[in-house]
């Protein structure tokens, strides 16, 4: 840890980071790396701590004293401002961010992603504290190309689909498509943060993650989450594979995504944390443009990888089609394609992702198998004997 320098060769001073949503998927990976590789202190705020328990106990851990957990719901807790004041930097990750909630719990989604983030922005601005706020690639919505005729050659032109922070518009569906409640709330909080920067000098960085995946993402329904719950696609497909049931392709699985390994993405956040002069005032796409697949291709690849890591033979019919109305309910809609433009993050931070989709699935599904296979087997045998 000694002699750590930033991208411009300046020594990095130890800092205190107030991390809100530290107990979630991204937060747990960020805390892990901050503890093992830096001298920084983390004030970890969340309502849950299961995913960072291994960092908090036992007290003999080498970073003991550098991470403190504060069980706080930021909706209604006056301790929040004090923690932000104590810190040099606030990282806000707290949000409802599972698509199954956007159309079924639109009010909770809007409150969580906009209203609950307001005090965080206000306290940072009023106290002259730096803020790294987590937005989403969903703010781009649909691509311009999605509105062209199916056979238009322009659909192949990157100008019609690559998503750029400074040039692409935000294209959402009609209000009755409540899927867009999340993207719209995130867009408004981005605009508010940007305006605080412009009018009041807030030092901010906005992160737009493009489908970060890896261990500890979401939950396996009925094991460490509600049995009726619908997590994001990695956990949905993992759950299907663990239970030897076909993977469900929503509306045929034609939508396209670029998936990035959580450990690659965390490197980018690290560079933002430790290089404020290069990161302040910027919005950054963080994704892996080389890992594009349709959801159907993802299902096929996960089936192959899971068979390799578990030694189990795949089902003869590994996938099944399901309508979005049946799977998510009324008001669902989808982003058609998400390829991040990497120009700004390359220029400012010199960062590039490394891990191929196959490799990241292999390490993630090895983790899923080791962590859950036995518990799923036991839960399934209980259901059949009852
Ligand atoms: N994982 C991705 O690929 C991805 C993609 C786009 C955007 N994001 C954004 O990144 C952030 C983190 O995502 P994640 O994947 O780690 O999600 P996550 O659900 O695993 O983590 C969010 C954490 O915030 C906490 N939280 C929510 N509301 C809170 C409140 N009122 N008070 C205290 N804690 C609260 C939750 O308990 C949870 O631990 C979110 O803002 C999300 O919108 C993530
Ligand atoms: O991760 C991101 O970058 C962002 O995108 C996600 O949105 P989305 O990619 O649509 O969410 P997933 O649940 O991961 O679904 C991906 C695709 O798989 C499909 N899907 C999902 C689950 C399933 O079982 N089957 C299936 O076909 C969905 O319809 C969608 O087309 C979430 O909105 C956020 O976590 C985040 O802001």
UniProtKB/TrEMBL annotation:
Main location: cytoplasm
GO biological process, one term: UDP-D-apiose biosynthetic process
Signal peptide per UniProt: none
Alphabetical list of InterPro entries matching this protein: Arna-like_SDR_e, Epimerase_deHydtase, Lipid_A_modif_metabolic_enz, NAD(P)-bd_dom_sf
EC number: 4.1.1.35
Keywords of the record: Cell wall biogenesis/degradation, Cytoplasm, Lyase, NAD
Top class in the EC scheme: lyase
Required cofactor(s): NAD(+)
Residue stretches making up the NAD-dependent epimerase/dehydratase domain: 17-287
Gene Ontology annotations for the cellular component aspect, listed alphabetically: cytoplasm
Catalytic activity of the protein: UDP-alpha-D-glucuronate + H(+) = UDP-alpha-D-xylose + CO2; UDP-alpha-D-glucuronate + H(+) = UDP-alpha-D-apiose + CO2
Localization in the cell: Cytoplasm
Gene Ontology molecular-function annotations: identical protein binding; protein heterodimerization activity; UDP-D-apiose synthase activity; UDP-glucuronate decarboxylase activity
Similarity annotation: Belongs to the NAD(P)-dependent epimerase/dehydratase family.
Protein name: UDP-glucuronate decarboxylase
Origin species: Solanum verrucosum
